[in-house]
Amino acid sequence: MPAVRIGTRASALARTQTGHVADALVALGCPAVETVHVRTEGDVSTAPLSSLGGTGVFVTALRDALLDGRCDVAVHSFKDLPTAAAPVLRIAAVPVREDTRDVLCASGGRTLADLPAGARVGTGSPRRAAQLRAARPDLEVVDLRGNVDTRLGRVTSGDLDAVVLARAGLARLGRLEAVTQTFGPDLMVPAAAQGALAVEVRADEADPALLAALAALDHRTSRLEVLAERAVLAQLEAGCAAPVGATAWIDEGRSPEGGTGPVLHLRAAVVAVDGRRAVHREASAPLPAPAADPSAATDHPDDAAVAATLGAGLAEALLDAGAADVADLRAAR
Ligand SMILES: NCc1[nH]cc(CCC(=O)O)c1CC(=O)O
């Protein structure tokens, strides 16, 4: 049986993420897995992200490698994937996701509240910049890109007072010691799908060992949370640079109404890039309990449909509250 070839970008974060998935596939019964390195426009170019144009600069080259048959599996940071489905490809697994939150990495162990007026804080994300300005209008937000090490280096060198990053990336790279504050959703609503991976294959992939391993790698809770979050973006028709956050979590226990099944909670925000206006909305929906006997579950709406409907409905609530006037939702840099 030929080895499963798993494509990865060259960055340390991408290689770490791919390595975890490769190890998991082997543990779940894939006989042999080899890694194929793929260079993407986002890695090769040193131009600001703003000039690279459109969604998916980190994604297209990896998908091309999958479509060309240079690899059989592609591992993406899910939040980097455009919401539109890719024809002829399929997301076959969403592994258990990491922490979804954003963090501050500041010099001197500082939190956001400790930073002096005018402190320079780096981020390349309009969503993070908008929420930073909403919390601390006095800060100077500095545009930033590059890999995680480069960004942290701007703080170590003293060039910046702090940077904002995804906790998940730092966790995967073993760099959590750099974190000086983890932001709750009242301070910063995370990006849709932050902390999650998308494991993609060709839609006609037929290797039974690979398909079985991917099915076992898939984590229902993570998949549904991400589905709800991305449904918000899709319904808003949000561009990749729109200052929109969306975060979902599943409470497996009792619902506040006294029900017994799992409940999907969702919170989303659209924030003006100057931080002066914001719309926040929350909603939740009971999920059909995972059926002990799947054939008995036919009365329940499909759990994916519940997640998608919750996300779309929350987007409509944001729009009703004026989200389209608060920020340019189509912004694609
Ligand atoms: N846009 C780059 C990117 N894509 C995924 C992550 C972090 C890991 C994740 O969110 O899964 C990062 C870096 C960051 O936002 O700090």
Give a quick set of tags describing it.
333 residues; D-Maltodextrin-Binding Protein, domain 2; Double Stranded RNA Binding Domain; 5-stranded mixed sheet; 10 helices; 21% strand; binds ligand PBG; transferase; Porphobilin_deaminase_cofac_BS; HemC
Folded structure, characterized:
The structure is a single chain. By secondary structure, the protein is α/β, with parallel strands linked by helices. The chain folds into three domains: 115 residues, D-Maltodextrin-Binding Protein, domain 2 (3-Layer(aba) Sandwich); 81 residues, Periplasmic binding protein-like II (D-Maltodextrin-Binding Protein, domain 2), CATH 3.40.190.10; 106 residues, Double Stranded RNA Binding Domain (2-Layer Sandwich). Helices cover 31% and strands 21% of the residues. The protein is built from ten helices and 13 strands. Strands 2-1-3-10-4 form a five-stranded mixed beta sheet, with helices on both faces. It has a five-stranded mixed beta sheet with strand order 7-6-8-5-9, with helices on both faces. It has a three-stranded antiparallel beta sheet with strand order 11-12-13. β12 and β13 form a beta hairpin. α8 packs parallel to α9. The radius of gyration is 20 Å and the shape is globular. The structure holds the ligand NCc1[nH]cc(CCC(=O)O)c1CC(=O)O.
